[in-house]
Amino acid sequence: MNTSDDMQIFLTYGDIALASSLILIVLMVSWRLRLHLTKTLFMAALRTVVQLSFIGLILAWVFAREQWYEVLSILTIMTLIAGSAAKNRVKRRYKGLFIDTLLAVSVSAVLVTAIAILVILEVQPWYTPQFVIPILGLILGNSLTAISLTSNQLINAFYEQQARIEMMLSLSATPFEAVHEQIRTAIINGMTPTLNSMLVVGVVSLPGMMTGQILAGADPTQAIRYQIVTMFLICVSSTLGCTISALLTYRRFFNKNQQFSLP
Questions:
Q1: Is the separation of the CB atoms in 145 and 193 below 8 Å?
Q2: How far is the C-alpha of 92 from the C-alpha of 136, rounded, in Å?
Q3: What is the pTM assigned to this prediction?
Q4: What is the separation of C-alpha 113 from the centre of its chain, rounded to a whole number of angstroms?
Q5: Which residues contact 142 (CB under 8 A, 6 or more apart)?
Q6: Host H or E run for residue 46
Q7: What is the pLDDT along the chain (263 residues), one digit of tens a residue?
Q8: Among 148, 123, 142, 144, which Cα is nearest to 209's?
Q9: Measuring CA to CA, which residue among 20, 241, 227, 206 is closest to residue 109?
Q10: DSSP string spanning 178-220?
Q11: DSSP class of residue 11?
Q12: Partners of 205 in the β-ladder
């Protein structure tokens, strides 16, 4: 660990190795309590180091060049991976699930990121990688979690409450009216982690982005302002993503004759 005159701390590979050794505590707990997570923990730790090291090299190269097509390519890949990750977290799959999750993730995240870059931060040019890549990545990570929770909740509700939905339809309810309660519950479920985080931010927890900026030597007041902005961006993106996901999913469970049908 090295320090400069302004107390900024520069991490060395030795510091990273020391931090990684703490994983041994987690492995010991897993072994002692027979959690059967040893392999998963090892792979997670290994992938964390490899993936972040790899993306660090790519970002350093992209940051130095600042070419719009390279930045756009990275943003596209990030969005595709997020859509796939959201789909993989859904236990009960149906045909077209990937398209639905990808649309929900991309529309919500790209729209909110565009507002942040062009309207709030007024970044010029818009493809400045220092801003657009971290912001989109932060929003995508939270949105895909919210979307997967919404999809899981809604699909499970459709399977478990099939009789109730069909009864509502028989009583002349429209498809949306028949599943409105399930959609509402699913969106609430998807939004819960984001809302819980907002309720305790700064009081119980210090978010990773703000902590990272402060540790890197940034002005705490500026770090806090950036964190407030990102929390609102995440909230809006998660809400849009959950809503789009729920609406796209519910349409998959009704045929052309507006009849409820499990895939």
A1: yes
A2: 28
A3: 0.81
A4: 13
A5: 194, 234, 237, 238
A6: helix 38-65
A7: 555 545 566 778 888 888 888 888 888 888 888 888 888 888 888 888 888 888 888 888 888 888 889 899 999 999 999 999 999 999 998 989 999 999 999 999 999 999 999 999 899 999 998 889 989 998 999 999 999 999 999 999 999 999 999 999 888 889 999 999 999 999 999 999 989 888 887 666 666 666 666 666 677 788 788 888 888 999 999 999 999 999 999 999 998 888 888 87
A8: 142
A9: 241
A10: HHHHHHHHHHHHHHHHHHHHHHHBTTTB--HHHHHHHHTT--H
A11: -
A12: 201
Element holding 9 (H helix, E strand): strand 9-10
Which tokens hold the place of 212? 């990272």
Both tokens of 102, joined, read 């990808």
Both structure tokens of 50 = 């490899």
Residue type, 76: T
Residue 112 structure tokens: 């909110």
CA–CA separation, 147 vs 135, rounded Å?
18
H or E, element range at 32: helix 23-32
Assigned token pair, 198: 């907002």
